[in-house]
Amino acid sequence: MREQPTDCAGVKVVYYSRGMATCAPADARETRRTWMGKLRELFGGKKPKPQPQKPAVVASAPKPAPAPAPKPAPAAKPAFDWSASESFQQRTYPTYEAYTEHQKSKLSKLDLTKYNVEFSAALQDRIGKVLNGFKPGGNVLCLGARTGAECDAFIKLGYFPIGIDLNPGEGNRYVVVGDFHDLQYADQSVDIVYTNALDHAFDLEKIVKEVTRVLKDDGVFIAEIVDPSVRGPGDYEAIWWKTLGDVIERIEKGGVTVWENEDFEFPWKGRQVIFVKNGNRRVLDTKKASS
């Protein structure tokens, strides 16, 4: 860059190497650096970086207080319809798995501690009277045995019971997982079959068929049956009968015969019915005489 002292209205003419010229104030108050920056702006040099603009602060409306969380609704009970015939009602499940899940859930709703003690004592008393030494030391299969109060009663009478249930709970000494529609026991291998859970049957005929299959020819089937005249079905019953006679007659069609029956009051009003196989009504009498 060179300067030529040419007067230009009091302004010096400044020449640059590329042939460009500009005028600078005669008094040269501004520094060369300032002018160089201006020249770069005019002729395509780097533009100064724009200063970031702070976003405008917009006043926001106050947030509304959060609504209180809704209380959880109580768990709904499974809604299964009932089909009805002249003598029976049957709960209708969409699948067999729905039936088993419904029945298994019952145990979690119950505290059977006191019930087990009282029921075991009552059952021991009435079973002891009717069996009266029948097949001492014989094996017993208890169907729908829950936590095993009926097994406890048979043990105290000198028998060797095992119970099955869809949900026997944890740590159960007497009851294993099993389904009374499909017994995992050999033909004619059991001396006594006991149940008070026929009102939880999905297929009553299938249960009776399984009972007669596993029962020895000189064995007995003891069914304690709820009396429908005093109440209706609850949340977990799967079948219900109009009269005791209706259900007893239906059981007999499965190949067993009534030997004896007697009413009882605990844990609910019902009837204890002793069935024998093949119409052998003298099974218990013969065993009593030989004991």
Automatic annotation (TrEMBL):
Residues 42-78 are annotated as: Disordered. Keywords: Methyltransferase, Transferase. Residues 63-75 have a biased composition (Pro residues). Signal peptide: none annotated. GO terms for molecular function: S-adenosylmethionine-dependent methyltransferase activity. The keyword Methyltransferase applies. Residues 141-222 form the Methyltransferase type domain. One of its GO terms (biological process) is methylation. It comes from the Bacteria. It holds the Pfam family Methyltransf_11. PANTHER family: F21J9.14 (PTHR45085:SF2). This is Class I SAM-dependent methyltransferase. It comes from Rhizobium leguminosarum.
